Amino acid sequence: MSKQQVTIFWFRRDLRLEDNVGLFHALKSKQPVILLFIFDDAILNSLPKNDARVGFIHESLSKINTELKEIKSSLLVKKGITLEVWQSLLQEFDVKEVFFNKDYEPYAIKRDSAICEILEANNAIFYSFKDQVIFEEKEITKADGLPYTVYTPFKNKWLEKYKAMVPVQEYDSSDHFSNFYPSEFAFPTLEQIGFEESPIKVKPNNLKFISNYQEIRDFPALDKTSYLSPHLRFGTVSIRKLVNWAFHKNDVFLSELIWREFFMQILFSFPKVVTQNFKSAYDGIQWRNDEADFKRWCSGTTGYPMVDAGMRQLNETGYMHNRVRMVVASFLCKHLLIQWQWGEAYFAEKLLDYDLSANIGNWQWAAGTGCDAAPYFRVFNPEIQQKKFDENGIYIRKWIKELDLGYVEPMVPHAMARDRAIATYKAGILK
Predict the structure, then answer these.
(1) Are 101 and 128 in contact (CB under 8 A)?
(2) What SS3 state is found at 39?
(3) How does residue 421 score in pLDDT terms, banded at 50, 70 and 90?
(4) Domain 133-169+208-269 belongs to what topology?
(5) CA separation for the pair 146, 273 (Å, rounded)
(6) CB-count exposure of residue 401 (10 Å: 0-12, 13-18, 19+)
(7) How would you class 340 by CB atoms within 10 Å of its CB: exposed for 0-12, middle for 13-18, buried for 19 or more?
């Protein structure tokens, strides 16, 4: 019996039907289109069983599946080693074409290369598309073709190129929804993929505060942030729609979206930054890496309320306000002289919006070891940061219930820690 000829669109970091570049092109195929998502064991096996991000992915896929049911189709969800899943699909269907949107992280690049090899061996044509960024890979470079390593000229070039094409094209696939593969694939429960509900949830994004973003973004007690980052991370929102909207709303907010692409470009061009300092001159720094100090930082018991409130917010909710992230990261690297990789790994475990390029970029910025980083002698004073951005203590009291009952003393005096950090960096920076 002959196998059904199909086209497959492979969801990854683009969990939406709306304005999805790869899906738009897939639906123009001559074959009916199966929508596929793979829960990848290579990623899942390192996560706790109540990981909130897996729950969010499952919830987002369920919404897509509900939409597909209305047009007599469904989402094919698989779990396993990605290569083995694809080998099984190629046995089950006569796969003529495969469409997917690019992922620029090192693991994804290696994975996709392996998948494309077996697709080619099975005479399946594959197409990849730019979807999660406005400009990818080598589209924003210096005149000599080399990547930018300083943000401001990157931003200027990005804006110049974007303004020449405003608005960026958006992709409406709705006219071709009739080309979805008619199906009733069984949609697995969270438990069936080996996970369980988490008390931590991803919040809906909220863009109503963006008009005066630059005036309110540094004050954590206001709780007037967009909560957009997990949605960008997993692609439940379109970057094209967002940028086309932000361009007319707020320059500072748009700049934050450009920072996201800058760090993606750095990771793509310099993959060593996943584990190593961007600036190799900083490789000689003698970190203290005290495990007891690290545990106090993780648990939010350092004696500095701004640091502790941020860590407790992270541990309880999976979120941390951006201004506070800078304070806690600086404290770990400068006050405690614990290398940035420890903090990056902890954030990777806890953050709902964990994104490899942004996490590494921001941690190396705080540590002074990255591209366009804060200079090593810039050491945030947590007490001054608190007075500037949480003057009335509303934020810190929200997360530190015992603050007014005789709070723990700071684990290290700021002045001593600052002097020690500057001396350690100065001695360790290779000439």
Answers:
(1) yes
(2) strand
(3) very high
(4) 1.25.40
(5) 17
(6) exposed
(7) buried
- Among 98, 23, 103, 11, smallest CA distance to 57 is for 11
Does domain 1-131 fall into CATH 3.40.50.620? yes
Distance from the Cα of residue 161 to its chain's centroid: 24
> Which band of pLDDT confidence, cut at 50, 70 and 90, is reported for residue 1?
low
Q: What per-residue confidence (pLDDT) applies to 377?
A: 87
pTM for the whole structure:
0.95
Pairwise CA distance, residues 318 & 330, whole Å:
19
Residue pointed to by tokens 């998948």 = 115
Q: What is the reported pLDDT for 375?
A: 82
CATH of 273-428, one of 3.20.20.70, 2.40.160.20, 1.20.1250.20, 1.10.579.10: 1.10.579.10
Please write the tens of the pLDDT for every residue from 206-257: 998 888 999 999 999 999 989 999 999 999 999 999 999 999 999 999 999 9
Answer whether 401's CB lies under 8 Å from 375's CB.
no
Give the pair of three-digit tokens for residue 115.
């998948």
Helix (H) or strand (E) holding 118: helix 106-121
Alpha-carbon separation of residue 43 from 105, 136, 197 (angstroms): 13, 24, 18
**In the chain, what percentage of residues exceed pLDDT 90?**
94
Mean pLDDT of 17-21: 98
**Strand pairing report for 125-129 and 94-101:** parallel
**283, 409, 417, 428: which is closest to 337 by C-alpha?**
417
Domain layout of the chain by residue ranges: 1-131, 133-169+208-269, 273-428
Only one residue has tokens 């369980």, namely 196
CA-to-CA separations, 354 to 265, 304, 332, 346, 347, in angstroms, rounded: 17, 25, 18, 10, 7
Band (373; pLDDT cuts 50, 70, 90):
confident
Q: Which of 316, 314, 348, 345 has its CA nearest to residue 328?
A: 314
Question: Mind listing the pLDDT tens digit for each residue in 253-306?
Answer: 999 999 999 999 999 999 999 999 999 999 999 999 999 999 999 999 999 999
- For residues 145-157, give the mean pLDDT: 96
- Print burial letters for 161-185: b (CB count within 10 Å at least 16), e (below 16): ebeeeeeeeebebeebeebbbebeb
What does the longest C-alpha to C-alpha distance in the chain come to? Answer: 78
Joined tokens for residue 142: 């210096």
